[in-house]
Automatic annotation (TrEMBL):
Organism: Gemmobacter lanyuensis
Identification of the protein by name: Malonyl CoA-acyl carrier protein transacylase
A biological process from GO: fatty acid biosynthetic process
Lineage: Bacteria, Pseudomonadati, Pseudomonadota, Alphaproteobacteria, Rhodobacterales
Catalytic residues in the record: S93, H202
InterPro entries according to UniProt: Ac_transferase_dom_sf (IPR001227), Acyl_transferase_dom (IPR014043), Acyl_Trfase/lysoPLipase (IPR016035), Mal-CoA-ACP_Trans/PKS_FabD (IPR050858), Malonyl_CoA-ACP_transAc (IPR024925), Malonyl_CoA-ACP_transAc_FabD (IPR004410), Malonyl_transacylase_ACP-bd (IPR016036)
Cellular component per GO, a single term: cytosol
Entries under NCBIfam families matching the protein: fabD
Pfam families: Acyl_transf_1
SMART domains referenced in this protein's UniProt entry, alphabetically: PKS_AT
Substrates-to-products reaction catalysed: holo-[ACP] + malonyl-CoA = malonyl-[ACP] + CoA
GO MF, any single term: [acyl-carrier-protein] S-malonyltransferase activity
Family: Belongs to the fabD family.
Top-level taxon of origin: Bacteria
Stretches assigned to the Malonyl-CoA:ACP transacylase (MAT) domain: 6-309
Length: 309
């Protein structure tokens, strides 16, 4: 039996996430305290008692979700299930930073600050209303890529997230993405809908944010991970710090190859996927990709104790 720890991305945030972990495990509370100190603000108060609209802002959601994931991991460690219990780690978009922090490639405080910078840079890369994203349901990745190319018409429209066999997200200029929705419907998509996001993530329009992240990542220390990290833009495991830095920059404009990443881990012998942190979105995707694999969500003290079980 081989196990992978996987870490969720944006969209999983909820008010109150991680609070029960912090109350039950001092090591989990210490994560939120360290993130608050690194950012110079009480992000934990926003996470536990704030307004969902404020938490959903990209610059808040990204470090908040990472903090919740690492708090869940610290709770697991307190019960004797540390990172060495995993053969691989992986994360969806910002979750890749959580995975790198979990694998001791990035320090927690550095990860929090990087994600604050990343969130702000991604939000500021494109004026509000210029870009958009849409989910195409019922089309495979190759067909969705063809749809995006047809819809571009001189603008940017790219397959941004290859989430599972029947869910691909496209990203780019708003008009091009709207065209993609109509073309996808004509090509037989079960559903094609615009997403309520604040920016067109994981496409060429994010290039200004990639420049910002290249500068930010150059200023932090990155160690070789203690567990191989299956990275978004390559859909394969990486263990060298010098490659990780470049791949995190590439990730800003590159596709999140989640379906391929899960298949890679399955072919490498992974039979269990533990989703560490908020929500169960990745577990749902994984069930549609690796049908024989077991999934487990670990985001509450009850989940932690059940995992120890």
């Amino acid at each position: 039996m081989s196990r992978a720890f996987v870490f969720p991305g944006q969209g999983a945030q909820t008010i109150g996430m991680g609070r029960a972990l912090a109350e039950a495990y001092p090591a989990a509370k210490a994560v939120f305290d360290e993130v608050d100190e690194a950012l110079g603000e009480k992000l934990s108060a926003l996470i536990w008692e704030g307004d969902i609209a404020a938490l959903t802002l990209t610059q808040n959601a990204q470090p908040a979700l990472m903090a919740t994931s690492i708090a869940a991991l610290r709770a697991l460690e307190a019960e004797g299930l540390g990172i060495e219990a995993a053969s691989f780690v992986a994360g969806h978009s910002l979750g890749e930073y959580s995975a790198l922090c979990a694998a001791k490639s990035l320090r927690l405080s550095d990860t929090a600050r990087l994600l604050r910078v990343r969130g702000q840079a991604m939000q500021e890369a494109v004026p509000v209303g210029v870009g958009a994203m849409a989910a195409l349901l019922g089309l495979d990745f190759d067909t969705a890529t063809e749809v995006a190319a047809e819809a571009a018409q001189g603008e940017v429209c790219q397959a941004a997230n290859d989430n599972d066999p029947a869910q691909v997200v496209v990203s780019g200029h708003k008009a091009a993405v709207e065209r993609a929705v109509e073309i996808a419907k004509a090509r037989g998509a079960k559903r094609a809908l615009m997403l309520p996001v604040s920016a067109p993530f994981h496409c060429a329009l994010m290039q200004p944010a990639a420049h910002v992240m290249a500068e930010a990542l150059a200023a932090v220390n990155i160690e070789n991970p203690v567990v191989p990290v299956v990275v978004n833009v390559r859909a394969e495991a990486v263990s060298e710090a010098n490659r990780i830095r470049d791949l995190l920059v590439a990730q800003v404009t590159g596709s999140v190859r989640w379906r391929e990443s899960v298949l890679w881990m399955e072919q490498a012998g992974v039979t269990e996927f533990w989703e560490i942190g908020a929500g169960k979105a990745l577990s749902g995707m994984i069930k549609r990709i690796a049908k024989g694999a077991e999934t487990r969500a670990v985001g509450t003290p009850e989940d932690v104790l059940a995992a120890k079980g």
